[in-house]
Amino acid sequence: MPGDELRVEYHQQLQELKERLVRLGAMTAETVGMGTAVLLDRDLAGAQRLIDGDDVIDELSLEIEEECFRVLALQAPMAGDLRLLLTTLRVVSELERSADLMVNVCKASRRVYDIDFTPKLRGLLDSMGVEAAFLIRAAIDAFVDSDTSLAAALDDIDDRLDDLQVTYVEAIFESHQTENLPLRAAVQLALIGRYYERIGDHAVNIGERVIYMVTGWLPESNAAARNALRKASGEGAKGVVIDFDAPSGMDQQVIDPPEPGAERDDGGEPT
């Protein structure tokens, strides 16, 4: 096969991988919405359908991973294409885990089947479901469009879901105290809130991987740089405080380590 045809086939493979990943993201976001409806409607049959339907998501996830491995082995991609494939592998894992969390929600819904949710709890559960599905869709949009601005914003957007989860837990305590919500049911409801919160975290992780795909940078890069500086300083050397957000060229602050037993001047405990 001529070289040009090989390159065309190669880029078609990459495009098909992206399309499959978008389909997986859409299925995951849809699962979040359907799982929330199942929970609020106390739909046991619907819960079982979603639990069984997770096999389809698992199968698609496996197909995408295997295709990524095949392209990596046969095409030896470089630079941006390599980061695309590595990002796809990570995003698949984040989406598959998000779908698993909704399976957990469906299983938990069967354990609280006989519990009447207060209007406040129902409203908060519905809002968490909407926010979690939105975050998944936004993360996939950032991937498709290579949109680093949207990818970086996901962490701030996730704050809304985090705040909802905190309010939701407070509402559970309130129901336990004033509405005689059984403790066992309260624990299950708290776990459900945690599942939604974790879905938001997975979306943020996808955003970080999108930034890596486009720029080659990861949040762990700063940590690695800090650790390298610590190693370079050697044992017993002066402590070096580096502000990685400081403007380039700014002098770094060097601090002598305190003597053993000496009091700190910041009001803290002796070293």
In short:
The chain has 271 residues and is mainly alpha-helical.
Main beta sheet: strand number and arrangement? 2 strands, antiparallel
Helix proportion: over 70%
User: How many E strands?
Assistant: 2
Terminal CA distance reads 69 Å
Beta-strand content estimate: under 5%
Describe this structure in words.
The chain is an all-alpha fold and 271 residues long. It has two domains: 3-218, Phosphate transport system protein phou homolog 2, domain 2 (Methane Monooxygenase Hydroxylase, Chain G, domain 1); 221-271, no CATH class. The chain has seven helices and two strands; from the N terminus they run H-H-H-H-H-H-H-E-E. The chain has helices at residues 3-41, 44-75, 79-111, 119-145, 148-178, 183-215, 220-233, and strands at 239-241, 253-255. Helix 1 packs parallel to helix 3 (79-111) and helix 2 (44-75) packs antiparallel against helix 3. The longest helix has 39 residues, at 3-41. It starts with a helix and ends in a 16-residue tail after the last strand. The relative contact order is 0.11. Mean pLDDT is 86; it is low at 236-242 and 246-271.
